[in-house]
Amino acid sequence: MKTSLLASALAAVALAAFPVAAQASATGSVLTFTPAPEPSEMVPGEPSEAPSEGPSEGPSEGPSEGAAAVPFGPGCRKLPETGPGSPVEIAKEKVATAVEQSPELSQLAEALKKSELVEQLNSADGVTVFAPTNEAFSALSQDVKDKLNSDPAQLKKVLTYHVVSGKVKPSELQSGSLETLEGGKLTVKQENGEYTVNDAKIVCGNLPTANAVIYLVDKVLVPPQ
């Protein structure tokens, strides 16, 4: 018993004399302690936490702007993730060419060709296109479709009503009006997280192209008479 008490006392003295690390390892009945490094031995500047992940590059439900801007809206899920028509490929093309590549905008692409607007839009230095989806064109009555197909001037008037000079940011769609290339105005607003242009909803917005930005809408916009 005296031997055990003496050994414990000696161990306590040794611990008080030498700083130790918080961990100890057991080998049989003997405890081996690792002395803690002196301050001069520590490596300065090492991060205590793992680096945070970068921003997501996929479509989001809410709009964002700046270098990290990404498309937003539920309709963005219909866009291809890669290849022609995907946000990455659209960003490389002039706007009319980007529309032609998008599976969701094939009817708009055909209308742009009929109205001879492809070259004008591709040569524009910064425009915004509120692009009706195929579903939007399909919702038009047959009578309206026939009139537009038989009258290129009227078709051009309707299509230029969907184009605004300059690259419109989501923050500029909160409330107000935008002047179109047709000469009329579009009423824009944001309510309960939903963006509208006149009475059309933006289903996928903030799609950049090489010279423009595209907002997909669920209705064909009709200019005032």
TrEMBL record:
Biased composition (Low complexity): 44-69
Matching InterPro entries: Adhesion/Biosynth-related (IPR050904), FAS1_dom_sf (IPR036378), FAS1_domain (IPR000782)
Annotated stretches, region: Disordered: 32-85
Gene3D superfamilies hit by this protein: FAS1 domain
UniProt xrefs under PROSITE patterns: FAS1
GO BP: any one term: extracellular matrix organization
Signal recorded as keyword: yes
One of the record's GO cellular component terms: extracellular matrix
Superkingdom as given in the UniProt entry: Bacteria
Signal peptide: 1-22
Keywords: Signal
Keyword Nucleus: no
SUPFAM superfamilies the UniProt entry points to: FAS1 domain (SSF82153)
Designated name of the protein: Putative surface protein with fasciclin (FAS1) repeats
Native organism: Streptosporangium saharense
